[in-house]
Amino acid sequence: MSERSARQVWETALGELQVEVSRPNFRTWLSGTVGLSFQGDDFVVGVPNAFVAEFLEKNMRSLVEKVLTGLARRSVKVSFCVGSHDDRPARSRKDRPLLNPRYTFDSFVVGQSNMMARAAAEKVAAEPGQTYNPLFIHGGAGLGKTHLLHAIGHSAQSRELDVLCVSAEQFTNELVRAIRESSTDDFRRKYRSVDVLLVDDVQFFGGKEQTKENFFHTFNALHASGRQIVVTSDSPPQSIPQFQERLRSRFQWGLVADLKPPGFDTRRAILEAKTERDGIKIAPDVVELIALQIKQNIRVLEGSLNRVVAYCQLMKGLVTPELAARALADIASMEVPPTPPTPAMITEAVATSFQVTLSDLKGRKRDEATARARHVSAYLMRQETECSLAEIGRELGNRSPATISHANSRIADNISHDPQLRRQVFNIQQTIHAAAGAGRA
Ligand code: ADP
Ligand code: MG
Q1: Which ligand has its closest atom nearest to the C-alpha of 262?
Q2: Could you read off the pLDDT of 394-411 as tens digits, one per residue?
Q3: ω before 134 within 30° of 0 (cis)?
């Protein structure tokens, strides 16, 4: 089918999707997409960047397929592909940074706890390489490090600067791949040619000597030529014991700024900003109730608001303080940080369910049952843990991130039309949760 009809089909699909998803979600994830091609059963949707592609793949693929299948009156498989219908390069460079569109300076609420980090971030975004270089942002989980980092990226990018934003883990993985494929020149060129380099969670470098060595040289090269470097970490430079002195002192050359847990007023302001943005109607005393209870982590704060709203919808009630208090009681009991299931719990439960041994699961056997069990393990680790594809690959007998990603999508896909597999996976999940719950007590 022609490109033109793919576009028309997608326009119609968007009309239906607009009804199915919330307005903010639609605006963030779907509004910039375009129908690229429709051949056989395969529909390709063009999306503006890899971040959107990953989100849609993970969260909306089955809904999108349902809508397209309904329109085409045959089963349609969708894939999300970065790029637009015309072949103009999306930008001048091919590696567009994966910046979360929500993480901007505008949406970052300022308070005592983050004022200095925020001001420093705006300063380096406005005058990269000229004031604080590097800027080192540190703080506990969920306090806005990634948000600020991406805000710098958006701001610099809007002024046509070349921005590269990676997690320390991505940096490491790319380096390892470059070494394996003897393409370290490309790696070096990529990292040493940008105006602004943003590296998230550098504590991840930990004891990885070769990575640190390489990052050290990248740092020096960029710094010497006046490019801006911003890094984030869960602790200040002097408290990352595995960093050698020379790296530690590099990080202290510029400015070290921290993010503290926000005070009550800031927590309330963050919740208000979120209700406004998402069009949530909620009484001020309910917002206050939530802001009073959740203190340490803004991600949890936002999650709690979502839960209160969802709870009230389920109970078909207005969001009243009474109902919210009940929902919060639930949350408060959940607030004991749930121990996430470990990869070991998952492999064990899967091996039992599929009746394969652990060593086969992590080994090279490729018969159907073993392969299936391995794929399901990959899928569940994606679902149930915070492990990266690389870490999962290591857990499952040193398999590549691409293999894991493939296994994951395959099971996600199979589950949607194989009720028996769905039941089996569900049962395994129950087992894992029971095991994780027992670990908590
Ligand atoms: P970290 O990287 O420090 O773990 P994130 O940057 O991922 O934390 O922030 C967690 C969540 O909290 C994100 O949804 C982010 O948008 C939100 N958030 C953090 N700080 C603020 C802030 N000052 N104003 C608004 N939202 C914030
Ligand atoms: Mg982060």
Answers
A1: 1
A2: 999 999 999 999 999 999
A3: yes
